[in-house]
Structures are given as structure tokens and as C-alpha cells.
Amino acid sequence: MSETPTSGFRSRLFAALYDRVLAPSEEAGLAERRRELLAQANGRVLELGAGTGINVPYYTDAAESIVMTEPDSNMLKRLRRKIAASPQARFIEVGSADAGNLPFPDASFDTVVSTLVLCTVPDPERTLEEVHRVLKPGGRLLFMEHVLGKGSTARRQHLVARPWAAVACGCRCDRPTHDTISASPLELQELEHGRMPKATKFLSPLIQGRAIRPKA
Ligand SMILES: C[S@@+](CC[C@H](N)C(=O)[O-])C[C@H]1O[C@@H](n2cnc3c(N)ncnc32)[C@H](O)[C@@H]1O
């Protein structure tokens, strides 16, 4: 994996504030969702867009080895620090990778993890094709993503999507990610709709679940 330097004031600020901004949501239930989701991660695990490494403490011994990827150098710095301080550090490899062009061979992971990432990658369809490619047959994508809601929430999300993306480093609040996963080569196995606790209305609709790479 290579180092892809990402610079710019916005990227530095986003990385510096990320954990603090998310803390009220984490404390109000998002952390519990991460724990439930990541308890299912097993075997050789790849995490996409790992950010500051919020997921690091939630992996269990079922995850035999973990590759955490992140393309933003400001996030990557924090991710490396979090991993170095973790008791699981020796099982975790870290590096820069674009989820739309993963530097890994076909069928090389049992689990891929994506939390709050499909909102930000430039091409979610391409990312899901890559996830399908690097998963072993029967391997699983575990996801938790904020998504397009319904009715007045959806209207508000479409209105604020562009300005929000400009301040939040490309995060789109109006992506129908559940439809994108359903239309991908992965097979949706479990889908739960919920809310991101303590989030503003346009970031609140949340999905969590599991999709697999079919065996044949
Ligand atoms: C909202 S943060 C989520 C961080 C973390 N996964 C979490 O659950 O808190 C979105 C992350 O996606 C990363 N990202 C942006 N473009 C990406 C890409 N093309 N491939 C992989 N990750 C990307 C960002 O750098 C950022 O760390």
C-alpha cells in the first residue's frame, strides 16, 4: 500500500475535529452499533476509509488479522497513533488505499468493513465492485452508513448535499446506499434501518447490515 498525501486546510481540520464532533453520537449509541457490527468481523479483515481509527477497539479475537486503509494523510496520522496505542497493534496493518482501486489480490479477505465511508467515496458502485472482488466467495461486507431518508428529510438532504459535501470533505448526505448495495454484485443478507443518535436531521437516517459475495 502506498502513501497518498492529502493536504489542505479543510482536510486537516476535518481530521482534527472528527472524533470530537462524533463523540456525542458515539456515546448515545453509535459506539454500541459499531460493537455489534464488528463482533461479526472474522478471519482476514479489510477496513475501508478507517479515518481516525474509531473502530479499532471493537474488533474481537475472531478477526485474525486486520488491514486498515485510509487515503487521507491527516486521518492516516491519527489512525497510526490509535493503532500504536492498541493492544491489538501487532495484528493490524495500516496503509493508504482508495476504496475504488484496492491494492489487494482477488478473494483475499473474509470480511470487509465500511462504516460511514460509502457516503464519501467518489464512486460507491465501483467501490462495491472492488469489495466483491477482494472478498473470498462467502466472505462478508459489514456496513453501517448514513443514507438518504424519506419525505421531508430527503428533500432537505438534497438541498444541503452540495454545501455539506464542500465542508465535510466530500461526504454526501443524500446517497441511496441501500439501493446501491442491492444493485451491486454482493447479496444483501441483513439490513436494519435506524438513526444516527444526536445527529442533525440530514445526517440521521442510518443503515446497518451485512452483504456477502455469493459462493458461485
Ligand atoms: C466520515 S469518515 C468515516 C471514518 C470511519 N470509517 C468512521 O467510521 O468513523 C469517511 C472516511 O472515508 C475516507 N475516504 C474518502 N475517500 C475515500 C476513498 N476514495 N477510499 C477510501 N476511503 C475514503 C475519508 O478520508 C474518511 O476517513
Automatic annotation (TrEMBL):
A GO MF term: S-adenosylmethionine-dependent methyltransferase activity
Gene3D superfamilies listed in its UniProt record: Vaccinia Virus protein VP39
Protein name according to UniProt: Unannotated protein
Alphabetical list of CDD domains matching this protein: AdoMet_MTases
Cleavable signal peptide: none
Organism encoding this protein: freshwater metagenome
One Pfam family matching this protein: Methyltransf_11
PANTHER family: METHYLTRANSFERASE LIKE 7A, METHYLTRANSFERASE LIKE 7B
